[in-house]
Amino acid sequence: MKTTTGDQALIKRMNTAIVLEAILQAEPLSRAKISEITGLNKATVSSLVQDLIDNQLVREIGTGVSSGGRKPVMLEFIATAGYAVGVDIGVNYLRGVLTDLRGAIIAEKKLPLQAPDADEVFNVLRPFIQTLMEKAPQSPFGIVGIGVGVPGLVDRAGSVLFAPNMGWRDVPLKEALSRTFGIPVMVDNEANVGALGERMFGIGRGISNMVYVSVGIGIGTGLILHRTLYKGASGFSGELGHLSVEAHGRPCRCGNRGCWELYASEQALLEQAEAAGYPRDLDELLEAAEAGDEQVLAMLRGIGEYLGVGISNIVNVFNPDAVVIGNRMSRAQPWLEEAVTQTVEQRALGFHLRGVHLLYAELGDRSAVMGAAELAIAAFFERLKSA
Amino acid sequence: MKTTTGDQALIKRMNTAIVLEAILQAEPLSRAKISEITGLNKATVSSLVQDLIDNQLVREIGTGVSSGGRKPVMLEFIATAGYAVGVDIGVNYLRGVLTDLRGAIIAEKKLPLQAPDADEVFNVLRPFIQTLMEKAPQSPFGIVGIGVGVPGLVDRAGSVLFAPNMGWRDVPLKEALSRTFGIPVMVDNEANVGALGERMFGIGRGISNMVYVSVGIGIGTGLILHRTLYKGASGFSGELGHLSVEAHGRPCRCGNRGCWELYASEQALLEQAEAAGYPRDLDELLEAAEAGDEQVLAMLRGIGEYLGVGISNIVNVFNPDAVVIGNRMSRAQPWLEEAVTQTVEQRALGFHLRGVHLLYAELGDRSAVMGAAELAIAAFFERLKSA
DNA sequence: ACAACTTTGTTTATCCAATAGACAAACAAA
DNA sequence: TTTGTTTGTCTATTGGATAAACAAAGTTGT
């Protein structure tokens, strides 16, 4: 491992990144304003901006209003300098978007999946992505990358180590896609990309430290700490769904006992419902709740309470600014919210003191695709910085 | 907040830090070797080393062995260029060390504490620190700082927000000490400094991601992620002792239910012992265990199992390279170890796969003081980098 | 309408850290 | 001795950032 030493090229890359960042955050912006914001000299800014313009990342969009002197030339980021593909692989569906570099959706596609067999999925996935890519207009950078979210454990190399609900084991997804398309591919866990999606384009915009709780069949979590996705020491973390909340509770297929997801997931609800003679179907249960079925409401409150138990633990551990509940169960918000909030308020240490916000996903079933696209976009910017 | 822009001074600071780091990690080292290791040009290294020598941080210690050419001039870090004070404030004791910049103990002091009243402690603390400081030989940088570990919640400003066992609330410890001594003061939680201590000087040397579990009256935790102490979003984290492991367990004074520390701390053991007619004293219980008292051994196994439950949760969340069990209960290692290991192996997801190590503190009751000193030393190096 | 002041963005000369390459000193081995 | 190697310094060059001067393009007060 070579230590990154400092030289002048590094300075230039750093400062270019700073300038670009400034424009992204508050466009349109003049050179003078950038100089003021960043503390860089006017001449430096001029020079760096020129480079950005030469690289087709920024353009002048005419003059702005003067405040008693020469009118400023306003600059903006060229969001259409390139495009990104985001894909959300579900157990029984495939969802994809083509976005520009600012995350605006250019094209969208959805497909039901039959057998989630790895080979089969790949055969469907390839033309699926291809079609999206073809929707992209001509642009300087073209398709900058493909981001993929998968409901399973993903390692640093982008291989799906284990996806129980898909029946996958050791599927080198990233490698396969890279080879097929010849452009950068990022693969990550569904909860992680969901977190990214809500953080960049949803309810979590601008929040520095956020925990995304993906409540579906199981419970997955995506941690955003200091504005970046946090991965554990060995790359795959976020297994908060398997935090034990009942030390001597039911055994879980993970080997542990009393895992949180056994008590607070969609599956937990469906099992309870079935035992009580209800259909094993979330939609029908939510309809019953809507109609005021007291038994269903009680079940939902129970789920909400257990959700709160786990969220309290998360709050105590990570001290996030916000917790976002997403994925399928977020649709039950009206009937969960009270129980969740109450439980967390009771249990989380100094909850009010910290000002943690309990939020619900804003992008609905698009959290993950959008996050997947963001994965590709972020990687593109990262490459810009280091070259 | 001003963005740190890049200029030549920044480069120089970065590269100087790289050179110093290289020397610290593998002294003694020649200029040529440093150039080779860091990738910096020989001339650059020469110049930077000269600066370090001028600043009394590095010195030449004669020539080394040649491998067929001019003999290299070996360089070493001047550990005695300054000294640091570390203090561990306990409920009924005060412990302090004076170390050089490499953490070698120059002087040590211990004092029993009567009433842990904040004012009183401060009155004892002042001369206590003063005495340690006077033991320091003359040096270019003098006493570079004072690090303090406290059994309580500490905010970013170094105020002790809440220390239940001391009966403290909102004690601006850092400010008070800063004013008294006029040198940099760092205050942090006991578990955090303990983690630092073991990481730098104990069993955790060189480990990048480590969780230190301080098992005393309560349970505190210090997280070291990516080689640095991790603090939650709002500065104080590490409340893993209050992770709920029994969702409907006993209410805890923190407001939550079934907190881990209710089942796995020294206090938990003492309560069980008392109920069974044993003396409420750890030493006597350990003696009984030593003598093979089956009832005591069973209690210790129970504690060990619960320790394992919590540690499994930690492993699942943070994926650390190692978990270190420290503080008073680490003395019970022989009777805890089996139960802990077994439980974690059963419960932590893919425990073996990850290669997590279960370790026990090496510095004994010195983990915290040494970490406190390290806090001051690290801050000194940090200041060097940014000025 | 005009002078005076402002703001914007470029140009110029200067500074400074890193670097390659030349070089001298110091040494081992043949 | 001779030859080749290693170490560390010296010199000229490169390339970014910067301050200061400046031109261009405004606004405002009288």
From TrEMBL, chains A, B:
Check the record and name the Pfam families matching this protein.
ROK
Example GO biological process: D-xylose metabolic process
Q: Which CDD domains match?
A: ASKHA_ATPase_ROK_BsXylR-like
Q: Which UniProt keywords apply?
A: Carbohydrate metabolism, Xylose metabolism
**Protein origin, superkingdom:** Bacteria
Name the InterPro entries for this protein. Answer: ATPase_NBD, ROK, ROK_cs, WH-like_DNA-bd_sf, WH_DNA-bd_sf
Give the UniProt family note. Answer: Belongs to the ROK (NagC/XylR) family.
Q: What does the UniProt function comment say about this protein?
A: Transcriptional repressor of xylose-utilizing enzymes.
Name of the molecule in the record: ROK family transcriptional regulator
Q: From which source organism is this entry?
A: Cohnella lubricantis
